[in-house]
Amino acid sequence: MRILTGLQPSGKLHVGNYFGAMEPAVRLQEQGEAFYFIADYHAMTSSHDAAALRENVRGLAVDFLACGLDPSRAVFFRQSAVPEVNELAWILSTVCPMGLLNKCHSYKDKVAQGIAPSHGLFAYPVLMAADILLYDSNQVPVGKDQKQHLEVTRDLAVKMNETFGEGTVVLPESIIRDDTAVVPGLDGRKMSKSYGNTLPIFGDEKPLRKMIMRIQTDSTPVEEPKPTEDSSILALYKLFASEGDYQTMLADHQNGGVGYGDFKKRLADAYWDFFAPMRARRDEILADPGYVDQVLADGAARARVEAAKVLSRVRKATGLA
Ligand code: ADP
Ligand code: TRP
User: Fold this and answer.
1) Please, what are the domains in the chain?
2) Ramachandran quadrant class, 256 (left: phi over 0; alpha: psi -120 to 50; beta: rest)
3) The one catalytic residue among 110, 144, 238, 265
4) 265 a catalytic residue
């Protein structure tokens, strides 16, 4: 079984990204042949800053490896290192009805956010379909926001096989992570870089602890019980602390007698300890600058072998070869 997913290189990873995307990806690499890539072509639909793109791609590669991506198990590469994907995207675009793209809400949402309405942004789902179909992917784990793009991919796969013959491409299944695990941000809303309420995974200890100490709380006096619902302190602590420590903090909320400052300090300690092994791994990776380049080069070479097989099949089916 081949599992494939892409992540956009869009700046510092936060705790929501970790629990929503990286941790599940790291777990899944045990269950099949994982293909994970950094979607740098896709990133160009929202920004044109060459230095930032380079830095974000590298940053994501380092952080993903630090979080447990194992390059001996997963094929890890950057999207643009396999430019064959553009050829498949073109072929898909010739069978893609305009109506299918017209109804994609992600395009409209992004334009509403102020991103320039380019052809690339409009055709984004076609490139994404090419990413998936180029590697005969069976399962594609994504967040809820990508559900419609996966539907477009499946529609295009069906269309390809109707047009050029069964077996031209493999029909993928999506695995939509139900967002039971929406990680709250420092202000209680969903953690997201668009809300500026994120807690980064990596960074310097002092400012990170300060961010936690600044979490907004109500004015319940120390001695009184504290509300437990919609508490980002409790929700975040649950992710980092042992079950026993979490239950203690819950009881301390319910019984009163402990102030918010104390809870935040416990949260900051648990957060710092949780990411300690990944921080150590990250320091090792950073100390060996050639390592990341080597991992990505190996991944790209392995990915290209697969891409060439699929593309050759598609070229034959379409009459290009
Ligand atoms: P952001 O909302 O910060 O822009 P992205 O949309 O780039 O984050 O998300 C990248 C990945 O991280 C996606 O798979 C998404 O589902 C996951 N993710 C982002 N924020 C959260 C969150 N608060 N809780 C759970 N998963 C999240
Ligand atoms: N569009 C995805 C996102 O923003 C990233 C992505 C690009 C992707 N190509 C993909 C995800 C292929 C899964 C499969 O999160």
Assistant:
1) 2-182+289-318 (3.40.50.620), 203-274 (1.10.240.10)
2) left
3) 110
4) no
